Amino acid sequence: MSSDLDQLLAAKEIVVCCGSGGVGKTSVAAAIGLGAAARLGGRVLVLTVDPARRLATALGVGGLGNIERQVPPEVIQAATGAAPRGELWAAMLDTKQSWDQLVLRHAPDEIAAFRILENRLYTNLTARFVQSHDYIAMERLYELHSSGQWDLIVIDTPPSAHAIDFLDAPARMADFFGGRLLRLLTLPYRVGGTRGSRMLNAASKPFYSIADRLLGSRLLEEIAEFFLNFQAMYDGFVERAQAVERLLHDRRTTFAVITTLEAAPLNEAESFIAALVDRKLHLGALVLNKVLPAYFVAPDVINAAAHLSDDADAMGAGLAADASLGGAPLADAARNARVLRTVSESFHNFALVAAREAELRAELGRVPDVVATVPSAESDIGDVQGLAWIAGHLLSTR
Amino acid sequence: MLDRRLLCFTGKGGVGKSTMAAAAALLAVQHGKRVLVVEVDAKGALPALLGHAPVGYRPETVAPGVRAMAMDTEQSLREYLRLNLRVPVVGRIGPLARAFDFVATAAPGVKEILTIGKILWEVRAAIDGTADHDLVIVDAAATGHVVSQLGAPQSIRELADVGPLRSQTEWMIELLSDPAITELNVVTTPEEMPVAETIELVARVRSELSVPLGSVIVNRVLPELFTRADEAAFEAMRAPAASEWIAARAGAGTAEVLDGARLAVELRRARAEHLDALRAAVDLPLLYVPYQFTATPGLRMTTVIAEALGEELGL
Ligand SMILES: Nc1ncnc2c1ncn2[C@@H]1O[C@H](COP(=O)(O)OP(=O)(O)OP(=O)(O)O)[C@@H](O)[C@H]1O
Ligand SMILES: Nc1ncnc2c1ncn2[C@@H]1O[C@H](COP(=O)(O)OP(=O)(O)OP(=O)(O)O)[C@@H](O)[C@H]1O
Ligand SMILES: [Mg+2]
Ligand SMILES: [Mg+2]
User: Fold this and answer.
1) Of A81, B117, B119, B278, whose CB has the highest number of CB atoms within 10 Å?
2) pLDDT-based confidence at residue A336 (cuts at 50, 70, 90)
């Protein structure tokens, strides 16, 4: 009954699911949460980012902001066939709302907070700052973990250009708000007290003259004002970013790398694994998702497929001749032969893909103790039933 | 499509943007165009799809008739300063670039304008006949980012009160809005999330940008195995009586072979639903590119895909 992944989940409080875009991070994160709640018990929270609409609806978090909702036990029971031992909760990540909360928490007073919230650069920053999504996910994780309300938090990560980005997000955030550049940028607006007064030293002058000519002084001023406001929150921010960083390194935290057996996602998974090792973060599991069933590479099956096309005409006629084999649908020998050839050809096509997958799997370098394989389902994972199906595969393989 | 001067390919991560950009480049060359391919996301994957090693900011010939370059905003800034402000930037641009990076992160459109500005610069050169290319093909940012990239000239115009950046935005917007010059194509796969993102993107482009949309390219389409009558025969073969009879002749793996075909049918069917949703929501031409089972990414696969794309375009 128990698997290696079970043991991993029992020992940890945070599982971070990461991987390349579209490989199934969200589905697997939710399935891990479901499996843990159903089998291990305790209060389990799945924090998801951008789930497909049907899945969000199935988890009860469609369209809502940062609110945790419980997945009704009877829904889980209907999907798994047994009453869950623990509770499964789900929440979405609302980036904008999380940023606003962060500002409200760290700003020295309400007026300062509102000045920031109303700045149009702030809106842009939170919407478009590439790392803001990454950072805010980590920030929320910290918040939820500190609340002490959860036995296990499974966090899904946002699709980013490079899966590694979010690992460095806390550090980058601290850099961003604490760096020399921030001081350089806001310098002309701090000296002398008058906004816009230009008492610059020789070193920073070229930068301003270029920036001024390029951007126009109004924009430059607005940017500086924004950062000046933000600076009031600097200490809080940096402290927090460092705490988030520590949490990722905590021994109660583990990472699950999700990938498909395709060249590009796998490459990214491997560099991600290397990055985890590099940073001394705990690599708990590798999940190979959407893998073709093993029969596509089984010799006797491949053999049978070849027979189907080689002997298609004879078998097609045989199936048509004996009414007890299928009757009307199989009455046309030529049709039967065509169908058999098509079946064989389709098998051959998928076998090619499966063989490539097997090759890529054989070439896998460093892998964690737990490697789970989840086959490609016949349709999308859009409900709790589908999650239970994934969980079944996750928790029964190694 | 090929008569334009600027073709952009966007789409959700991993759907085949780079593949389509490379395939379009091959098609264009077949029709006598000289092409500059610009890779925007710095993944460096595109030249390999044309059988060439990665390239840098300076365009390099990667295939007959095709030059490629990788976008680099620092290089673009350097070039811009030199050409427009007559500010020579010698040596490492270092601290200036970092400071600029910093500003660019916060101010909407600044980083993006360096990207789109360079691209449009090359487009203008193509139109003027002063470039070594007739057509610029962009392997653009993914759906999440492409609107801010193509919308950068607009954002900048709203934001910067004076300065050369503002005056530059006028001609950029003009080029980007001209349907005879620019075309934005969206690549998708017949899956739930890519389709949802495509529908959302098309709506956003229409409401927020003036950039003309071309086609939606549906990539990785699985073959339809059976007609309805053939499928009935197939189902009858899967029933125990027939399936055991076949197994007695074809061998022990027969049931799995039939399962495999069943999986193919189901996968195609699940995707068909998403395609219906796409057709219902988007009124752009849809171009279908089949899934390549034998594929290892490279020039050969790109050539096959270019052929499929050409057929869909009626070329
Ligand atoms: N084992 C599986 N079999 C079949 N389909 C799957 C499987 N796992 C996930 N999917 C489907 O693949 C698609 C992508 O899954 P999911 O949204 O979980 O990926 P993701 O990595 O979170 O994507 P993104 O990077 O966009 O956030 C969904 O349509 C999902 O239903
Ligand atoms: N028609 C197809 N059939 C099979 N495989 C394909 C097809 N089109 C693309 N691929 C494969 O899918 C993968 C992703 O393609 P590609 O790199 O072009 O996507 P992309 O959208 O540029 O990805 P990214 O967002 O990572 O830049 C590649 O391995 C490519 O070879
Ligand atoms: Mg996701
Ligand atoms: Mg690409």
Assistant:
1) B119
2) very high
Tokens standing for B20? Answer: 């389509």
pLDDT at A233: 72
In terms of Cα–Cα distance, which of A45, A264, A20, A236 is closest to A148? A45
Average pLDDT, integer, range A293-317 = 96
Distance A70 CA to ligand 1 centre (A): 22
Query: Using the beta-carbon criterion (under 8 Å), do A159 and B99 form an inter-chain contact?
Result: no
d(CA B102, CA B87): 20
Most A CBs within 10 Å, among B256, B262, B267, to test the A interface: B256
Distance from chain centroid for Cα A42: 23
Q: Do A185 and B259 touch (CB under 8 A)?
A: no
A159 contacts in chain B (CB < 8 Å) = 13, 144
Residues of B in contact with A212 (CB under 8 A): 163
pLDDT at residue B15, rounded to an integer: 93
**Of A93-97, A168-172, B173-177, which one has max mean pLDDT?**
B173-177
* Domain residue limits, chain B: 6-222+283-313
Q: Which residues of A touch B43 (CB under 8 A)?
A: 161
pTM for the whole thing? 0.87
Contact between B161 and A222 (Cβ < 8 Å): no
**Where are the domains positioned within chain A?**
4-178+248-292+376-394, 295-355
The pLDDT tens digits for A8-38 are 999 999 999 999 888 999 999 999 999 999 9
Give the C-alpha separation, A103 to A124, whole Å: 15
Regions of chain B short of the pLDDT cut 50 = none
Question: Which CATH architecture best describes the domain A4-178+248-292+376-394?
Answer: 3-Layer(aba) Sandwich (3.40)
Residue bearing tokens 């500003």: B103
A283-291/A370-375 β-pairing? parallel
Of A181, A308, A329, the CB nearest to B250: A308
Query: What is the number of the ligand closest to the CA of B12?
Result: 2
Share of chain A above pLDDT 90, in %: 47
CA distance A316 to chain B (A): 10
ipTM of the complex in this document: 0.87
Q: Using the mean position of ligand 1's atoms as its centre, give its distance from the Cα of residue A376 in Å.
A: 10
**What CATH number does the domain located at B6-222+283-313 have?**
3.40.50.300
